[in-house]
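Supplementary Methods S3. Complex input for the calcium ion-bound model.
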Amino acid sequence: MRVLLVEDDELFGSGLKAGLGQRGFAVDWVRDGVAAERELLTRQYEAAVLDLGLPRQDGMAVLRAARAADVATPILVLTARDAVQARITALDCGADDYLVKPVDLGELAARLRALTRRAHGVSVARLTLSAISLDPATRQVWRGEQLVELSPREFELLRVFMLNADRVLTRERLEQHLYNWGSEVSSNALEVHVHNLRKKLGAELIETVRGVGYVARK
Ligand code: CA
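Predicted complex, serialized as structure tokens:
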């Protein structure tokens, strides 16, 4: 799951990035409000974690700008313990959820999973697609009764396919989900992952749409 993290505190930000990374999130981290607005408006994230007190432009202005530009990305706001009014204002400005600092990483990860489920109109935690089921919390995948071992990137790709069943996904969009900034993306990496998913989960699971990308069929 590709997430934007907006936090100007180096120590806190690096803790969040590392903790979310360990829990299977691909995290892009920016440290000020102007960069945050630019990223939200130009890249597709599945969710964003937004600190309110930021240099150059505060988090509330970022929220307003993103929602005014019809950015639908679920946004979770980080606030101080006593900042009740800030939380109310943030929710009214289009935030989807909030957490009070200091943040428990397990809780933050669970809330981000819940936000993305809701954004896709899915209310149950476990995803299913024909005989395949996937649990985002435990990161386990079954084919029928059989537990299947997937690499982190295969898992991420499968999760995106399952959330978007019957929708054609472009190569570009799928690659965005798989990589952080700066990581080298070899030109056939996506094909290799799709090949492995078909081998492990059944050739019929993912169809190739020539010249466009892929689609998982219900
Ligand atoms: Ca701050």
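The chain is about 40% helix and 20% strand. The longest helix spans residues 105-119.
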